[in-house]
Amino acid sequence: MQNTVRDVDVETTYRERLSPSLWVLASAAVAGPMAALVLAPVDRTLALIGGAGVGVALIAILVLSSPVIEITGGRLRAGRARIEVEWLGAPRILFGDEARDARGVALDPRSWHVIRGGIDPIAVIPILDPDDPAPSWVLSSRTPDRLAAAVRRAQAATRSTPRR
Asked: pLDDT tens across 139-162, in order?
């Protein structure tokens, strides 16, 4: 049986949610007691329920709205954007001062950025598509080496899969 694009295994080879740091979540949780203080003059029970609801809701919103980096079926997804891995170059991983510069003074405004404060390592993945206006993707990652390896594996799998 001939392999077609639809027969390719669409298993997720990499997935990372760039959730907020514990300090951000703890700061959001403090909003619960503040809401309870506002509602306390009205009713103590309402204040406890409202404060707990506000704290839980803020934490849930922060976690669920966090961007996801995922490689599935030969496609890299970072936040809202998607690109086929065949259009990607070799990923470069930056730490420390290089990562800080990539997020700051060396930041190319034309690149696609999915950067999360509190996550130091950065993966810079060049775009090889001449029609794409973005020269690269700049992605925060807690495990940039695994991200780079997953990109290379997906590229190798795409090259070895015959297309129609």
From this structure: 999 999 999 999 999 998 887 765
